[in-house]
Design a protein that fits this description.
Layout (H helix, E strand, L loop, with lengths): L2 H8 L23 E10 L3 H13 L5 E4 L8 H4 L3 E3 L6 H7 L4 H21 L11 E5 L2 H16 L4 E4 L1 H7 L7 E5 L3 E3 L2 H14 L3 E3 L4 E7 L2 E6 L2 E10 L16 E10 L4 H7 L6 E4 L5 E5 L5 E5 L18 H14 L8 E11 L6 E5 L4 E5 L5 H17 L9 H4 L10 H18 L6 H8 L7
Parallel strand pairs: 1-2, 1-11, 2-8, 4-13, 11-18
Antiparallel strand pairs: 3-7, 4-6, 5-6, 9-10, 10-11, 12-15, 12-16, 13-14, 14-15, 17-18
Helix pairs in contact: 1-10, 2-8, 2-11, 5-11
Amino acid sequence: MSAPEAETALEHASSTPLWWDDSRRPEPRAALRGEHDVDLAVVGGGFTGLWAALLALEEDPGRKVVVLEGAQVGWAATGRNGGFCSASLTHGVGNGLARWPDEMPLLQHLGAANLDAIESTIHEYGIDCDFERTGELDVALEPWQLEDLRALSQAMRELGEQVELLSAAQTRALVSSPTYLGGLLDRHGVAMVNPARLAWGLADAIEGAGGRIHEATRVQRLRSAGERVSLTTATGTVRARKVVLATNVFPSPLRRARSYVVPVWDHIIATAPLSQSQRDSLGWQGRSGVGDGGNQFHYYRLTSDNRLVFGGYDALYYFGSDLSARRQRRPETEQLLYHHMIAAFPGLQGVRITHTWGGAIDVSTRFSASWQRAFGGRVASVLGYTGLGVGASRFGAQVCLDLLAGRDNERTRLEMVRRRSLPWPPEPLRWLGIQKTRRSIAVADAHGGRRDIWLRTLDRLGLGFDS
Protein backbone atom coordinates (compact mmCIF):
# COMPACT_ATOMS: atom_id res chain seq x y z
CA MET A 1 0.00 0.00 0.00
CA SER A 2 1.27 3.44 -0.86
CA ALA A 3 1.77 6.28 1.60
CA PRO A 4 -0.54 8.57 -0.45
CA GLU A 5 -3.42 6.14 0.09
CA ALA A 6 -3.04 6.41 3.87
CA GLU A 7 -2.68 10.18 3.61
CA THR A 8 -5.89 10.36 1.58
CA ALA A 9 -7.79 8.19 4.07
CA LEU A 10 -6.64 10.41 6.95
CA GLU A 11 -6.87 13.72 5.13
CA HIS A 12 -10.02 15.08 6.74
CA ALA A 13 -9.86 13.23 10.07
CA SER A 14 -10.87 15.17 13.15
CA SER A 15 -8.37 15.59 15.99
CA THR A 16 -11.19 15.37 18.52
CA PRO A 17 -11.31 11.93 20.18
CA LEU A 18 -14.25 9.99 18.77
CA TRP A 19 -15.90 9.64 22.17
CA TRP A 20 -15.87 13.42 22.67
CA ASP A 21 -17.38 14.20 19.28
CA ASP A 22 -20.81 13.68 20.80
CA SER A 23 -23.91 15.86 21.05
CA ARG A 24 -24.36 14.60 24.61
CA ARG A 25 -21.08 16.12 25.72
CA PRO A 26 -21.97 18.23 28.78
CA GLU A 27 -21.40 21.94 29.15
CA PRO A 28 -18.38 22.92 31.27
CA ARG A 29 -18.97 23.11 35.00
CA ALA A 30 -18.11 26.17 37.04
CA ALA A 31 -14.71 26.59 38.66
CA LEU A 32 -14.33 26.64 42.42
CA ARG A 33 -14.90 30.00 44.06
CA GLY A 34 -14.21 30.97 47.67
CA GLU A 35 -13.38 28.84 50.71
CA HIS A 36 -15.05 25.52 51.53
CA ASP A 37 -14.89 22.85 54.23
CA VAL A 38 -15.60 19.28 53.10
CA ASP A 39 -15.27 15.74 54.35
CA LEU A 40 -13.59 14.45 51.17
CA ALA A 41 -11.81 16.29 48.39
CA VAL A 42 -10.97 14.40 45.22
CA VAL A 43 -8.30 15.81 42.93
CA GLY A 44 -8.87 14.70 39.35
CA GLY A 45 -12.05 14.16 37.34
CA GLY A 46 -11.04 11.01 35.50
CA PHE A 47 -12.31 7.53 36.26
CA THR A 48 -10.42 7.13 39.55
CA GLY A 49 -11.60 10.45 40.93
CA LEU A 50 -15.19 9.93 39.79
CA TRP A 51 -15.35 6.44 41.29
CA ALA A 52 -13.81 7.67 44.54
CA ALA A 53 -16.45 10.38 44.89
CA LEU A 54 -19.38 8.14 44.00
CA LEU A 55 -18.26 5.26 46.24
CA ALA A 56 -17.73 7.68 49.13
CA LEU A 57 -21.24 9.07 48.71
CA GLU A 58 -22.72 5.58 48.52
CA GLU A 59 -20.91 4.64 51.75
CA ASP A 60 -22.13 7.78 53.54
CA PRO A 61 -24.82 9.82 51.75
CA GLY A 62 -24.37 12.66 54.23
CA ARG A 63 -20.70 13.12 53.45
CA LYS A 64 -19.64 16.43 51.87
CA VAL A 65 -17.67 15.49 48.76
CA VAL A 66 -16.09 17.74 46.14
CA VAL A 67 -14.22 16.82 42.94
CA LEU A 68 -11.65 19.32 41.66
CA GLU A 69 -10.73 18.88 37.99
CA GLY A 70 -8.07 20.98 36.28
CA ALA A 71 -9.72 20.86 32.85
CA GLN A 72 -12.97 18.96 32.15
CA VAL A 73 -14.32 15.71 33.54
CA GLY A 74 -13.01 12.78 31.52
CA TRP A 75 -11.04 14.84 29.01
CA ALA A 76 -7.66 13.05 29.30
CA ALA A 77 -6.93 9.30 29.40
CA THR A 78 -10.48 8.62 30.61
CA GLY A 79 -11.94 9.98 27.36
CA ARG A 80 -9.12 9.01 24.99
CA ASN A 81 -8.77 5.25 25.49
CA GLY A 82 -10.13 2.44 23.35
CA GLY A 83 -13.00 1.57 25.66
CA PHE A 84 -11.74 -1.83 26.86
CA CYS A 85 -13.02 -2.35 30.42
CA SER A 86 -11.05 -5.29 31.80
CA ALA A 87 -11.45 -7.28 35.00
CA SER A 88 -7.66 -7.48 35.34
CA LEU A 89 -6.17 -5.48 38.21
CA THR A 90 -2.61 -6.55 37.38
CA HIS A 91 -2.22 -5.65 33.70
CA GLY A 92 -2.84 -9.24 32.71
CA VAL A 93 -2.33 -12.63 34.30
CA GLY A 94 1.31 -12.91 33.18
CA ASN A 95 2.32 -9.66 34.87
CA GLY A 96 0.39 -10.55 38.01
CA LEU A 97 1.94 -14.02 38.30
CA ALA A 98 5.43 -12.57 37.86
CA ARG A 99 4.88 -10.13 40.75
CA TRP A 100 2.29 -11.52 43.17
CA PRO A 101 1.91 -15.25 42.41
CA ASP A 102 0.49 -16.12 45.84
CA GLU A 103 -2.12 -13.37 45.63
CA MET A 104 -3.28 -14.01 42.09
CA PRO A 105 -6.33 -16.18 42.94
CA LEU A 106 -7.60 -13.38 45.19
CA LEU A 107 -6.63 -10.64 42.73
CA GLN A 108 -8.52 -12.43 39.96
CA HIS A 109 -11.56 -12.80 42.22
CA LEU A 110 -11.45 -9.14 43.23
CA GLY A 111 -11.04 -8.09 39.59
CA ALA A 112 -14.07 -10.10 38.46
CA ALA A 113 -16.15 -8.66 41.32
CA ASN A 114 -14.97 -5.17 40.38
CA LEU A 115 -16.10 -5.57 36.76
CA ASP A 116 -19.46 -6.93 37.95
CA ALA A 117 -19.82 -3.90 40.23
CA ILE A 118 -19.11 -1.52 37.34
CA GLU A 119 -21.84 -3.19 35.31
CA SER A 120 -24.25 -3.01 38.25
CA THR A 121 -23.55 0.69 38.79
CA ILE A 122 -24.18 1.43 35.11
CA HIS A 123 -27.56 -0.30 35.32
CA GLU A 124 -28.45 1.22 38.71
CA TYR A 125 -27.87 4.80 37.56
CA GLY A 126 -29.12 4.27 34.01
CA ILE A 127 -25.81 5.34 32.45
CA ASP A 128 -26.10 5.14 28.66
CA CYS A 129 -22.52 4.26 27.70
CA ASP A 130 -22.88 1.36 25.24
CA PHE A 131 -21.62 -1.15 27.82
CA GLU A 132 -21.32 -4.59 26.19
CA ARG A 133 -19.98 -7.62 28.11
CA THR A 134 -18.45 -9.00 24.92
CA GLY A 135 -15.18 -10.45 26.20
CA GLU A 136 -11.82 -10.19 24.46
CA LEU A 137 -10.09 -12.22 21.77
CA ASP A 138 -6.27 -12.30 21.93
CA VAL A 139 -4.88 -13.30 18.54
CA ALA A 140 -1.53 -14.72 17.44
CA LEU A 141 0.05 -13.31 14.29
CA GLU A 142 3.34 -15.25 14.58
CA PRO A 143 4.13 -18.82 15.72
CA TRP A 144 5.90 -17.58 18.87
CA GLN A 145 2.78 -15.64 19.83
CA LEU A 146 0.76 -18.82 19.51
CA GLU A 147 3.10 -20.51 22.00
CA ASP A 148 2.64 -17.56 24.36
CA LEU A 149 -1.14 -17.92 24.11
CA ARG A 150 -0.91 -21.63 24.95
CA ALA A 151 1.11 -20.82 28.07
CA LEU A 152 -1.30 -18.03 29.03
CA SER A 153 -4.28 -20.32 28.52
CA GLN A 154 -2.79 -22.89 30.89
CA ALA A 155 -2.00 -20.26 33.52
CA MET A 156 -5.50 -18.80 33.36
CA ARG A 157 -7.15 -22.19 33.61
CA GLU A 158 -5.06 -23.02 36.67
CA LEU A 159 -6.48 -19.85 38.21
CA GLY A 160 -10.00 -21.04 37.45
CA GLU A 161 -10.60 -18.76 34.47
CA GLN A 162 -12.84 -20.03 31.67
CA VAL A 163 -10.91 -19.34 28.46
CA GLU A 164 -10.87 -21.07 25.09
CA LEU A 165 -7.72 -21.72 23.07
CA LEU A 166 -8.70 -21.52 19.40
CA SER A 167 -7.23 -22.79 16.15
CA ALA A 168 -6.66 -20.47 13.20
CA ALA A 169 -9.97 -21.53 11.66
CA GLN A 170 -11.88 -21.06 14.92
CA THR A 171 -10.33 -17.64 15.44
CA ARG A 172 -11.11 -16.48 11.91
CA ALA A 173 -14.68 -17.69 12.35
CA LEU A 174 -15.04 -15.07 15.10
CA VAL A 175 -13.13 -12.27 13.37
CA SER A 176 -12.04 -12.82 9.79
CA SER A 177 -8.41 -11.80 9.23
CA PRO A 178 -5.87 -13.64 7.06
CA THR A 179 -3.20 -12.73 9.62
CA TYR A 180 -4.57 -14.86 12.47
CA LEU A 181 -2.82 -18.13 13.38
CA GLY A 182 -4.89 -18.80 16.49
CA GLY A 183 -6.47 -17.08 19.46
CA LEU A 184 -7.45 -17.12 23.10
CA LEU A 185 -11.04 -16.14 23.89
CA ASP A 186 -12.07 -14.78 27.28
CA ARG A 187 -15.83 -14.39 27.10
CA HIS A 188 -16.32 -12.91 30.57
CA GLY A 189 -13.37 -10.80 31.68
CA VAL A 190 -13.67 -7.74 29.42
CA ALA A 191 -16.46 -5.38 28.39
CA MET A 192 -16.60 -2.74 25.68
CA VAL A 193 -17.75 0.74 26.69
CA ASN A 194 -17.98 4.32 25.46
CA PRO A 195 -15.58 5.74 28.06
CA ALA A 196 -16.56 9.39 27.79
CA ARG A 197 -20.24 8.64 28.29
CA LEU A 198 -19.36 6.44 31.27
CA ALA A 199 -17.43 9.35 32.82
CA TRP A 200 -20.25 11.81 32.15
CA GLY A 201 -22.74 9.36 33.65
CA LEU A 202 -20.64 8.90 36.78
CA ALA A 203 -20.39 12.68 37.14
CA ASP A 204 -24.17 13.01 36.91
CA ALA A 205 -24.56 10.28 39.54
CA ILE A 206 -22.18 12.11 41.89
CA GLU A 207 -24.11 15.34 41.58
CA GLY A 208 -27.38 13.49 41.94
CA ALA A 209 -26.09 12.07 45.24
CA GLY A 210 -25.20 15.52 46.55
CA GLY A 211 -21.54 15.75 45.53
CA ARG A 212 -20.06 18.79 43.82
CA ILE A 213 -17.75 18.92 40.80
CA HIS A 214 -15.68 21.95 39.82
CA GLU A 215 -13.88 22.06 36.48
CA ALA A 216 -11.08 24.41 35.37
CA THR A 217 -9.86 24.10 38.97
CA ARG A 218 -6.26 22.96 39.21
CA VAL A 219 -4.95 22.23 42.69
CA GLN A 220 -1.69 24.13 43.10
CA ARG A 221 -0.71 23.19 46.62
CA LEU A 222 -1.44 20.81 49.48
CA ARG A 223 -0.62 21.72 53.05
CA SER A 224 -1.58 20.62 56.53
CA ALA A 225 -4.22 22.75 58.24
CA GLY A 226 -4.68 21.34 61.72
CA GLU A 227 -6.76 18.20 61.43
CA ARG A 228 -7.55 19.00 57.82
CA VAL A 229 -5.66 19.30 54.55
CA SER A 230 -5.81 22.60 52.69
CA LEU A 231 -6.02 22.47 48.88
CA THR A 232 -5.17 25.76 47.21
CA THR A 233 -6.41 26.65 43.72
CA ALA A 234 -6.22 29.89 41.72
CA THR A 235 -9.78 30.84 42.63
CA GLY A 236 -10.45 29.28 46.00
CA THR A 237 -9.46 26.95 48.82
CA VAL A 238 -10.84 23.68 50.10
CA ARG A 239 -10.17 22.36 53.60
CA ALA A 240 -10.81 18.63 53.65
CA ARG A 241 -10.77 15.95 56.33
CA LYS A 242 -9.58 13.43 53.72
CA VAL A 243 -8.16 13.72 50.20
CA VAL A 244 -7.93 11.32 47.26
CA LEU A 245 -5.33 12.23 44.63
CA ALA A 246 -6.33 10.85 41.23
CA THR A 247 -4.14 12.87 38.87
CA ASN A 248 -3.22 10.00 36.54
CA VAL A 249 -0.26 11.00 34.38
CA PHE A 250 -0.30 14.68 35.30
CA PRO A 251 2.06 16.09 37.95
CA SER A 252 0.61 15.29 41.35
CA PRO A 253 0.31 18.01 43.99
CA LEU A 254 2.08 15.42 46.17
CA ARG A 255 5.56 15.94 44.75
CA ARG A 256 7.01 12.66 45.94
CA ALA A 257 4.44 10.76 43.87
CA ARG A 258 5.56 12.28 40.57
CA SER A 259 8.47 9.92 39.87
CA TYR A 260 6.25 6.84 39.97
CA VAL A 261 4.68 7.32 36.52
CA VAL A 262 5.83 8.49 33.10
CA PRO A 263 3.60 9.61 30.21
CA VAL A 264 3.67 7.20 27.27
CA TRP A 265 1.69 8.42 24.27
CA ASP A 266 -0.71 6.04 22.55
CA HIS A 267 -2.57 6.74 19.30
CA ILE A 268 -5.90 5.61 17.88
CA ILE A 269 -7.69 5.92 14.55
CA ALA A 270 -11.43 5.44 13.98
CA THR A 271 -13.17 4.71 10.70
CA ALA A 272 -16.44 6.04 9.37
CA PRO A 273 -19.40 3.73 10.14
CA LEU A 274 -18.82 0.59 8.11
CA SER A 275 -21.15 -0.41 5.30
CA GLN A 276 -22.88 -3.78 5.37
CA SER A 277 -20.39 -5.21 2.86
CA GLN A 278 -17.47 -3.94 4.92
CA ARG A 279 -18.94 -5.48 8.09
CA ASP A 280 -19.47 -8.73 6.21
CA SER A 281 -15.80 -8.74 5.20
CA LEU A 282 -14.85 -8.62 8.90
CA GLY A 283 -17.12 -11.50 9.88
CA TRP A 284 -17.02 -10.14 13.43
CA GLN A 285 -19.12 -12.57 15.45
CA GLY A 286 -19.84 -11.60 19.05
CA ARG A 287 -18.36 -8.05 18.90
CA SER A 288 -15.51 -8.95 21.25
CA GLY A 289 -12.57 -6.61 21.59
CA VAL A 290 -9.37 -7.86 19.96
CA GLY A 291 -5.71 -7.57 20.89
CA ASP A 292 -2.77 -9.15 19.12
CA GLY A 293 0.12 -10.96 20.78
CA GLY A 294 3.09 -8.79 19.84
CA ASN A 295 5.14 -6.90 22.39
CA GLN A 296 4.24 -3.89 20.26
CA PHE A 297 0.59 -4.79 20.07
CA HIS A 298 -2.61 -3.46 18.54
CA TYR A 299 -6.05 -3.37 20.13
CA TYR A 300 -9.29 -2.80 18.24
CA ARG A 301 -13.05 -3.02 18.57
CA LEU A 302 -16.37 -2.08 16.99
CA THR A 303 -18.42 0.83 18.31
CA SER A 304 -22.18 0.93 18.71
CA ASP A 305 -22.49 2.57 15.28
CA ASN A 306 -20.13 0.00 13.71
CA ARG A 307 -16.98 2.03 13.36
CA LEU A 308 -13.67 0.26 13.75
CA VAL A 309 -11.48 1.79 16.45
CA PHE A 310 -7.86 0.70 15.95
CA GLY A 311 -4.97 1.70 18.22
CA GLY A 312 -1.74 0.82 19.93
CA TYR A 313 1.61 -0.42 18.65
CA ASP A 314 3.65 2.79 18.52
CA ALA A 315 3.90 3.75 22.22
CA LEU A 316 6.03 6.89 22.53
CA TYR A 317 7.89 8.63 25.33
CA TYR A 318 9.26 12.15 24.90
CA PHE A 319 12.21 13.56 26.82
CA GLY A 320 11.30 15.32 30.03
CA SER A 321 7.92 13.56 30.30
CA ASP A 322 6.51 15.96 27.71
CA LEU A 323 2.74 16.34 28.03
CA SER A 324 2.24 19.22 25.60
CA ALA A 325 -0.81 19.20 23.35
CA ARG A 326 1.38 19.05 20.21
CA ARG A 327 1.97 15.35 20.97
CA GLN A 328 -1.71 14.51 20.43
CA ARG A 329 -1.24 14.12 16.66
CA ARG A 330 1.60 12.25 14.93
CA PRO A 331 0.98 11.68 11.20
CA GLU A 332 3.59 8.94 10.81
CA THR A 333 2.00 6.90 13.60
CA GLU A 334 -1.50 7.48 12.25
CA GLN A 335 -0.44 6.30 8.79
CA LEU A 336 1.31 3.28 10.32
CA LEU A 337 -1.88 2.32 12.14
CA TYR A 338 -3.86 2.66 8.90
CA HIS A 339 -1.43 0.35 7.07
CA HIS A 340 -1.60 -2.20 9.88
CA MET A 341 -5.41 -2.04 9.93
CA ILE A 342 -5.62 -2.75 6.20
CA ALA A 343 -3.10 -5.59 6.53
CA ALA A 344 -5.38 -7.17 9.14
CA PHE A 345 -8.58 -6.44 7.20
CA PRO A 346 -7.96 -6.11 3.43
CA GLY A 347 -11.71 -5.70 2.86
CA LEU A 348 -11.49 -2.22 4.40
CA GLN A 349 -9.22 -0.92 1.66
CA GLY A 350 -10.15 2.70 0.98
CA VAL A 351 -12.19 3.16 4.16
CA ARG A 352 -12.25 6.74 5.41
CA ILE A 353 -10.74 7.65 8.79
CA THR A 354 -12.95 10.20 10.54
CA HIS A 355 -11.09 10.63 13.85
CA THR A 356 -7.50 10.23 14.98
CA TRP A 357 -6.09 11.21 18.34
CA GLY A 358 -3.43 10.52 20.92
CA GLY A 359 -3.31 10.49 24.68
CA ALA A 360 -0.81 9.92 27.48
CA ILE A 361 -0.93 6.77 29.61
CA ASP A 362 0.36 6.80 33.21
CA VAL A 363 2.95 4.03 32.98
CA SER A 364 4.44 2.64 36.19
CA THR A 365 7.48 0.37 36.47
CA ARG A 366 5.25 -2.55 37.43
CA PHE A 367 2.47 -1.76 34.89
CA SER A 368 -0.30 -1.70 37.45
CA ALA A 369 -1.63 0.65 40.11
CA SER A 370 0.38 1.71 43.15
CA TRP A 371 -0.85 3.53 46.26
CA GLN A 372 0.71 6.04 48.63
CA ARG A 373 -0.43 7.76 51.82
CA ALA A 374 0.65 11.18 53.10
CA PHE A 375 -0.23 13.87 55.65
CA GLY A 376 -0.60 11.39 58.47
CA GLY A 377 -2.96 9.13 56.53
CA ARG A 378 -5.31 11.95 55.52
CA VAL A 379 -4.23 11.81 51.85
CA ALA A 380 -4.25 8.73 49.60
CA SER A 381 -2.91 8.61 46.05
CA VAL A 382 -3.17 5.97 43.33
CA LEU A 383 -1.33 6.06 40.00
CA GLY A 384 0.08 3.82 37.29
CA TYR A 385 -2.68 1.75 35.66
CA THR A 386 -0.58 1.60 32.47
CA GLY A 387 -3.47 1.46 30.04
CA LEU A 388 -5.89 -0.80 31.91
CA GLY A 389 -7.47 1.86 34.08
CA VAL A 390 -10.98 1.83 32.64
CA GLY A 391 -11.87 -1.09 34.89
CA ALA A 392 -9.11 -1.09 37.51
CA SER A 393 -9.72 2.57 38.40
CA ARG A 394 -12.79 1.64 40.41
CA PHE A 395 -10.73 -0.79 42.48
CA GLY A 396 -7.98 1.82 42.83
CA ALA A 397 -10.49 4.34 44.15
CA GLN A 398 -12.02 1.85 46.59
CA VAL A 399 -8.58 1.03 48.01
CA CYS A 400 -7.91 4.76 48.50
CA LEU A 401 -11.10 5.05 50.54
CA ASP A 402 -10.14 1.95 52.53
CA LEU A 403 -6.73 3.42 53.32
CA LEU A 404 -8.19 6.76 54.36
CA ALA A 405 -10.63 4.99 56.67
CA GLY A 406 -7.87 2.81 58.17
CA ARG A 407 -9.64 -0.40 57.15
CA ASP A 408 -7.94 -3.77 57.54
CA ASN A 409 -9.50 -5.92 54.84
CA GLU A 410 -8.59 -8.25 52.00
CA ARG A 411 -7.82 -5.29 49.74
CA THR A 412 -5.55 -3.36 52.10
CA ARG A 413 -3.70 -6.53 53.12
CA LEU A 414 -2.62 -7.20 49.54
CA GLU A 415 1.12 -6.99 48.92
CA MET A 416 0.16 -5.19 45.71
CA VAL A 417 -1.37 -2.45 47.88
CA ARG A 418 1.14 -2.43 50.73
CA ARG A 419 4.22 -2.13 48.51
CA ARG A 420 4.47 0.64 45.97
CA SER A 421 6.17 0.34 42.60
CA LEU A 422 9.75 1.39 41.99
CA PRO A 423 10.16 5.00 40.86
CA TRP A 424 11.44 5.89 37.41
CA PRO A 425 14.98 7.24 37.27
CA PRO A 426 15.57 10.94 36.55
CA GLU A 427 16.41 12.29 33.12
CA PRO A 428 18.42 11.61 31.03
CA LEU A 429 18.51 8.01 32.34
CA ARG A 430 14.73 7.79 32.07
CA TRP A 431 14.66 8.70 28.37
CA LEU A 432 17.70 6.57 27.51
CA GLY A 433 16.31 3.52 29.28
CA ILE A 434 12.88 3.74 27.71
CA GLN A 435 14.29 4.25 24.20
CA LYS A 436 16.66 1.31 24.62
CA THR A 437 13.75 -0.82 25.80
CA ARG A 438 11.56 0.19 22.86
CA ARG A 439 14.31 -0.74 20.40
CA SER A 440 14.86 -4.11 22.08
CA ILE A 441 11.14 -4.86 22.01
CA ALA A 442 10.97 -4.11 18.28
CA VAL A 443 13.92 -6.45 17.69
CA ALA A 444 12.25 -9.16 19.79
CA ASP A 445 9.05 -8.91 17.76
CA ALA A 446 11.07 -9.29 14.55
CA HIS A 447 13.00 -12.31 15.84
CA GLY A 448 10.47 -14.76 17.15
CA GLY A 449 9.89 -12.98 20.43
CA ARG A 450 13.43 -13.65 21.65
CA ARG A 451 14.31 -11.13 24.37
CA ASP A 452 17.85 -9.75 24.38
CA ILE A 453 20.05 -9.38 27.45
CA TRP A 454 18.64 -5.91 28.18
CA LEU A 455 15.04 -7.16 28.30
CA ARG A 456 16.03 -10.27 30.27
CA THR A 457 17.79 -8.05 32.82
CA LEU A 458 14.68 -5.88 33.17
CA ASP A 459 12.61 -9.05 33.62
CA ARG A 460 14.86 -10.20 36.47
CA LEU A 461 14.58 -6.79 38.12
CA GLY A 462 10.80 -6.85 37.87
CA LEU A 463 10.84 -4.13 35.23
CA GLY A 464 9.78 -6.17 32.20
CA PHE A 465 8.30 -3.82 29.66
CA ASP A 466 6.07 -4.00 26.61
CA SER A 467 4.03 -1.43 24.73
